[in-house]
Amino acid sequence: MPRITGTYRTTEVGGERVRAFIPYPLPPREPALVVDGDLAALHRDAVGALEQLNVAGTMVPSPGWFIYGFVRKEAVISSQIEGTQATLQDVVLFEATRRTDRPADVEEVCNYVDTLAMVRQELADASGLPLCVRLLCRAHGRLMGGVRGAEKLPGEVRRSQNWIGGSRPGNARFMPPPADVVPEVLGDLERWLHEGDPLPPLVRAGIAHVQFETIHPFLDGNGRIGRLLVVILLERWGLLAAPLLYLSVAFKRHRQEYYDRLGAVRTDGDWEGWTGFFLRCVREAAEDGVSTARRLHTLIGGSRRLLTGHKDATLTAVRLFELLPDHPMVTLQSAAALLDTSSPTAGKTLDVLCRAGVLREVTGRRRDRVYAFQSYLDVLAEDTGVSGSE
Ligand SMILES: Nc1ncnc2c1ncn2[C@@H]1O[C@H](COP(=O)(O)OP(=O)(O)O)[C@@H](O)[C@H]1O
Ligand SMILES: [Mg+2]
């Protein structure tokens, strides 16, 4: 159903005259978006899948187990959507070794993990920032801070016209709003996030994502901040007990449709089409998460039995094992620190875990060795392979 979702303003960029799009404030109107019929069924299924994911998160003694892996999985895939080459293995390896020569791609993913933690902390802290444009800017500052982002104005809303797709403004797929209106349309979005709205919160989170991508307020990193916004909203609005949904797995699988649906809201006013797509992605990602959680749970149980049944098992070895789900790679130093013990004891403990078939040395070196809970990482790493170019 045709619906006008904004206006165009002709501007000049790099000597070319182009039409930049200025979205109307939310909610979708004339006609209003109504969640009934097929959309209502998709909504019910997506909410049901999120509930299952919440239950899956409580299957293990410490929810940190799944949060560790699932947050990193989301970070890797969300970064890959626009071309970052880092893999989950790279990220976990750098976290374990804390080497200083972190490649830019790995740094971007680690930055995403830090950013999510920072935003959640601000929101949880009574004296922290509320969910607002300033917080999103701060998130952007954290995400883009570091080697590659300096010229991307980390933490700042853009002051120039940008565009999506195409090599120059004239052949761009989409021209976001002119820089001078960005603060105003972002302010509208912020206000709508805090207003009561009769639409279901899950649907609102999807709509907020589109609006954010349409505004494209930053010079880079808009996709990642916009997807992070969804995860944050789902937690704030009570749909997720922890950031366990790695939604980007579905956006990456259906990347062309993802881009087309974002575009169709602007060109055809198709909020219904976007909402259906978004709800299917949430369901798909949540079901994927539940299945991964089940398999990790089984795998952890099996590995624990391997260890406790091993003739050389020690209490310290079991203690280290229980720490592995959120430290799936360790070094001699990190194991000693985690166990609060001496290097020789840590070394013996690592040896036991290797002999029991739980850990594996992955560098093949004699010095600076790294031990991985590889079977666990392999399950987590599914769908996080680098897919090459578009
Ligand atoms: N036609 C479109 N309309 C609005 N947003 C789009 C469109 N196509 C892609 N996008 C969004 O733009 C993002 C890319 O913007 P970018 O600033 O480079 O983000 P990042 O660097 O985090 O990937 C995509 O991930 C997607 O979310
Ligand atoms: Mg980018």
What does this structure look like?
The protein is mainly alpha-helical and 390 residues long. The strands form two sheets. The chain has a three-stranded antiparallel beta sheet, with helices on both faces. The chain has a two-stranded antiparallel sheet with strand order 1-2. The chain is globular, with a radius of gyration of 23 Å. The chain has 15 helices and five strands. A hairpin with a 2-residue loop joins strand 1 and strand 2. Helix 3 packs across helix 4 and helix 7 runs antiparallel to helix 8. The chain has two domains: 272 residues, Orthogonal Bundle (Fic-like fold), CATH 1.10.3290.10; 71 residues, Arc Repressor Mutant, subunit A (Orthogonal Bundle). It starts with 5 loop residues before the first strand and ends in a 10-residue tail after the last helix. The protein binds adenosine-5'-diphosphate and magnesium ion. The site of adenosine-5'-diphosphate has 16 residues, from helix 7, helix 8 and helix 10. The site of magnesium ion (MG) has 2 residues, from loops.
What does the secondary structure layout of this molecule look like, with pairings?
Blueprint: E1 6-13, E2 16-23, H1 37-57, H2 64-81, H3 88-97, H4 104-124, H5 133-144, H6 182-194, H7 201-215, H8 222-236, H9 248-253, H10 255-268, H11 271-308, H12 315-323, E3 329-330, H13 332-339, H14 343-355, E4 360-361, E5 371-372, H15 374-380
Antiparallel strand pairs: 1-2, 3-5, 4-5
Helix pairs in contact: 1-11, 2-4, 3-4, 4-5, 6-7, 7-8, 7-11, 10-11, 11-15, 12-14, 13-14
The structure holds adenosine-5'-diphosphate (ADP) and magnesium ion.
